[in-house]
Amino acid sequence: MLFDNKEGEVDLFWLLLIMLVVLVVARFPGELMERIGQASILGELIAGVVLGIIIFYFGGHFSGLIDVFDSEAFKFIAYLGIFFLMFMAGMEMEVEQLMKASKKGLLIALGGVILPLGWGFGLGWLYLPDSEYKLVQALFIGIALSITAIAVSARVLMDLKQIHTKIGYTIISAAVIDDIIGLSLLAVLTSFLELGRVPSGGELFILIAKVFGFFIFVVLMGKLIIPRIGAKLLRTKSKELEFTIALAIAFMLGVIAEYLGMHFIIGAFVAGLLIREKVFGAKVVKDIKERVSGITFGFLAPIFFVSIGLHLDFSALGLALPFMLILILVAILSKVIGCGLMARLSKFSTRESLAIGVGMNGRGALELIVAAVALEAGLFAYPVPTPPVVVAIFSSVVIMAIVTTLMTPIGLKLLLKSTPELKKK
Amino acid sequence: MLFDNKEGEVDLFWLLLIMLVVLVVARFPGELMERIGQASILGELIAGVVLGIIIFYFGGHFSGLIDVFDSEAFKFIAYLGIFFLMFMAGMEMEVEQLMKASKKGLLIALGGVILPLGWGFGLGWLYLPDSEYKLVQALFIGIALSITAIAVSARVLMDLKQIHTKIGYTIISAAVIDDIIGLSLLAVLTSFLELGRVPSGGELFILIAKVFGFFIFVVLMGKLIIPRIGAKLLRTKSKELEFTIALAIAFMLGVIAEYLGMHFIIGAFVAGLLIREKVFGAKVVKDIKERVSGITFGFLAPIFFVSIGLHLDFSALGLALPFMLILILVAILSKVIGCGLMARLSKFSTRESLAIGVGMNGRGALELIVAAVALEAGLFAYPVPTPPVVVAIFSSVVIMAIVTTLMTPIGLKLLLKSTPELKKK
């Protein structure tokens, strides 16, 4: 049977009802945010997470409701949400932008990776209990702190009409580099987890070789195959075909990434990088983006945000409250100082440097994805019995992501609105 | 865990790989069809079904592959495919068009329902074994024969530049009425199946009252609530919001339809009817359609078509070959004669009447949906042990849908291209 309710599979009625509730509850705060000049993803993200929490604590009263969230179908939809979010994130970046990233952008990006990575790793090493997984867990915290949400910063900079200024340009290009480094590290981390233990020297070499091999394959594909597809596509007029080809590229790279022991989101992300205006033409890329954006933000992403909220564990957070607070503090300080210092060294003014640091501080949805990937890989389940601080890593990182994401627009507005000396590019 | 491969749930690698294969294999024949002047859905439908058959017969060689198709996640994606196909089908129809349907259109539509319904029911009654389900099974065959694929006919008429002629107009409006009657009957049928047996007089009354109640609710919603939402929507500029609201309406009506014991596809379909240009404005409807069309035809529908192919049972078909052949013959004759005769009575020429009959004969994807709904409801599983002819109903109806859908463009081209006496409207 195609979809049989009677054999204990998820009840379709509840599944539809939940998707309806998620759409209405998580989307409208997004619109509200947009109207008060914030990035809509912020409202969606918060509403989704809060809804997830509410369902988790009160959903037990409705039989069938919790079953839906435990169902493979719901999880898969949330997963597709991650897939499309990553694909979208990749498309939002133009590789050209990245290539043109000035020495300054690169320096600031390095500051925004090295400090959070090191401090995060150190924090983990100090707080986490000894186990086979301690190294990987500490590494995860470091990676989680290195992420920068491009979408939120870009949106705020656009609103402030600062996106085409030197500061805006620097923030975006540094953020792009940070995320690519962060995701490459995540690829290595997932490979560790796939292996089930910290790898030996030889294994580590193979893992890193695989990650590099994958990126080289992607670059070759971008140079040799994609332009041919792009040229053909420019001649057709079917918008469905454009969308299908873009999706097929994303699924293909996702499959290859999975096959190589990395995570499929890496594939979705680099697929997004390959969908470039230079190759496909501005019109085609715009069409594809519109469709992906519709299905992502209008449908799948809110469901993913809810699934994140469902996994927040407040009892563990309560037991590991100091850890969470320190994590948030370290996250903010390491990014702001790491990026700000490099900006100051690159001859930006102190206020500009602070603005750059604040602009790089938001973690956004990408952080939630990184956390979900680690959760799913079972990173927070060791040692057994699991101490609260390990259980709390996931929830702490999610709350850190929300806090830093909320801070970005507020901080940027304060710093940039009152900055008359900003040099136009 | 969010999505754990280790606990026996579906393997994500295979799921992504299959979606990739489905996208590539099922979509490109669709494009090919479009290039040789056929409706692309035809290529997709056939390629999907053939792919499903291939996987069914050869998939056993790949461990994990069959698990994917049995997984809730795959079924749910196929199900979403149905949902969006129905939503799209509803949007393709403008209620205004329907209201303006001339007496002629109505007459032809009635001919196209009554004859197929009666003959189909009679065929079922003759061939099917006695059981509690015989009446409902025979009714299903009747309903299956009454369906008309609007999308295919519309596409062919557009290609032949006949869509705005009297003949094109008549075919489309009659097809719309046929599908609405067919889907209303399906709603009653699903209510029967929900009940698990043929209802008593009182129960039948309640069922029909529910169906009518639902449609009255939808009409009221269309008159009172939707215009307000539409007016608000015209003032915002967020395309994601448009898409979300359209989706929310569809999910809401789907949930209500399910709750009332009808099928959620009825809700999706009427939701599509409510997304009208008159209310939302041409621009908004175009945006919504583009997004729904992208996600439907570029992603979900091909997966649904494959799932149909997976359920084709050739051994049963072999044992019940005469039944299938007679079913196809009755399907063609009842539609062509039913519609053609009424057209002739409405003072169309003989050739025009034949063209109208042929134009109404294609069943398209809607038939596959109707068949999938009946399959899922367990209609073809009684009596136990199930005789081949009952098992073969599903496969026969699917093959009938494909044959009649293939015939439509060929027949219409032959009849209309050589018709110089066609009156322009």
Mean pLDDT of chain A: 82
CATH topology tier name of chain A: Na+/H+ antiporter like fold
Percent of residues in β-strands of chain A: under 5%
Q: Class of chain A, according to the CATH hierarchy?
A: Mainly Alpha
Structural class of chain A: mainly alpha
Structural Rg of chain A: 21 Å
The greatest interface here is: A-B, 58 and 58 residues
Write a structural description.
The structure is a homodimer of 425-residue chains. Chain A is mainly α and 425 residues long. Chain A has a single domain (76-417), classed as Na+/H+ antiporter like fold. Helices cover 79% and strands 0% of the residues of chain A. Chain A has 19 helices and no strands. Chain A is globular. The termini of chain A are far apart. Mean pLDDT of chain A is 82; it is low at 1-9 and 421-425. The interface between A and B is large, with 58 and 58 residues.
